Amino acid sequence: MIAGLVWVLLGVVFIIVEIFTVTFASLWFAFSAFIVAICIFFFPELAKIIRIQFALWAVFSFVSMFFWFKIYSPMREIERKNRGLKSGALIGERGVIVRIPRGDTSGTIRFHLPICGDTDWECWIEDDDINIGDNVKVIGVENKTLVVSLIKK
Q1: Which end of the chain is least crowded, N or C, by CB within 10 Å?
Q2: 88 φ/ψ sector (left φ>0, alpha ψ -120 to 50, else beta)
Q3: What pLDDT is stored for residue 9 in this prediction?
């Protein structure tokens, strides 16, 4: 019973650490500590085997952090980018062409600061006389791709 309380206390400590760091790493350590405490509650014989407790904590920590950083977070970035396209938040923004579209391949515009989580966005060029390094302005969105036009000097 004491071992379960120790894991709960450890989980609370990790949550306090997370409040000050906001990295989401400590959150998953806390989650894993609570899972180990629950396992000890349902399987009291685990309270005597510290190595298995730490192994469970390590496995739960690894799996939850892997899920968060490799699967869920990238999906959120894609969702954030799509939300920016749908809302028209990028129309009027200015950037620089870093890749010119060729055939069916879109080009790339780079903004000076990240917009909706990214600095590089796919684009189609309205004007034919645009070169790499030219300053352009977003004038529309078509099929999740920005439409840009040359900024006249």
Answers
A1: C
A2: left
A3: 96
